[in-house]
Amino acid sequence: MMVMISIFFSGCSLLPSSSTPSSAWVNSANARGVTGAVFTLSIPASWESANKHDLPTPRYGTIVGAFVSSDISAWTVENLVILRDDLDTIISSKRYADLNHVQTARNYLEYTFLGQTLLTFDDGDTAGAYTFEARYNETTPRIKYIQTAKVCGRNVYLLNFSLALDRDTAAYMPFLSSFHCR
Fold first, then answer.
1. Are 150 and 181 a contacting pair, CB within 8 Å?
2. What is the pTM of this model?
């Protein structure tokens, strides 16, 4: 089981209040579409692709997308990391997200569950989007996370937002639901 990690940005956060995402972002001038080799999705318009040379090698899977806010404050930056891994068995996106969350809760430090939202992707598939606060390891600050999974054939994509503690996570759900496998 792959546990989603927030990678190199585990202390990440803070878009300015004036550019906090809302559900209107995905269909507005404040969002932009991104087309990767294996996926498409919408991200905040001011966000950029992360430099591949700055990305660590995850324990499991491959990083297929990493996006960061261009705003840095208090040594933090908001980000979205997308990992892909191969599946050994057929499983639904919802079940994979549920199982991944169980492992995540065991592996993060100072873990506090905040809630689960049933996320519906643009193709009609569903998965739990788990929100929690935690520290990734002893050297990272406590931040807010949103994690979900999308199964596409024999691959699973884990999507992980790392956010400031004061963020309204509902504002980020439209970005997750815009994820589409190519």
1. yes
2. 0.82
How far is 160 from 79, CA to CA, in rounded Å? 8
CA distance 108 to 3: 10
Q: How confident is the model over 73-87, as pLDDT tens digits?
A: 555 678 999 999 999
Strands across the sheet containing 62-68: 48-49, 62-68, 79-86, 155-163, 143-152, 126-135, 109-120
Report pLDDT digits (tens) over 159-170: 999 988 888 899
Where residue 144 falls (left for φ over 0; alpha for ψ -120 to 50; beta otherwise) is beta
**What are the structure tokens assigned to 73, written together?**
């404050």
Q: How is residue 172 annotated by DSSP? A: G
Are the beta carbons of 77 and 69 closer than 8 angstroms?
A: yes
